[in-house]
Structure formats: C-alpha cells, structure tokens
Design goal:
Elements (H helix, E strand, L loop, with lengths): L1 H21 L9 H14 L1 H6 L1 H18 L5 H20 L1
Amino acid sequence: MRDAAEKAWNAVIQALNFLFAKEGISPLPRSHRERRIKLRELESSRPQIREKGFFDRFMARDHILHERAFYDGDVIEEEIEEEFEKVEALIRDIEEL
C-alpha cells in the first residue's frame, strides 16, 4: 500500500509537470516548493486553473499520499482508495484544460 500511494503521488507530479509544460513553464519545477510557487502563479494568472483548485489538491495529495502513507506508513485502505480516485480526477481535469 505504501508503494502504491507513492506511485499515485508520482502520477500527481507527472500530471503537474505536463500542465507546467503546456503552460510554457520552463524549466520544470524541481522541488515541491517550486511546484507550490508555480501553481500559485498559474492560479493568479489563469482563472480556469484557479477554478480547478490544483494548488489545494496538490497539497492534499502531498500530505495524505506522500507524507502520511509513504513516509509514515499511516495507511487506511479505504482512504487510499479514495485518494486514488482523487488522483484520477486531477489527471482528468488537467487533460481537459
């Protein structure tokens, strides 16, 4: 479960990298801090991105999948399954832009 959570977290990172590349952000962010900054900048300049709440969704997945599940081993199967669904929704929302 920990490995699956981290793979889902990586899917979030890859999806955001796709968004950044699509928006012409170069070089791509190399750290989570840079991702937060770039997401805030995008949300400030692009209403469609702000409406999707990518920053908040990124931070929630970071906390639950990356910090709690992967690093802390705090894994609740039902919660992780719900997180996987949220990752899929995030990817769909990015693709729709």
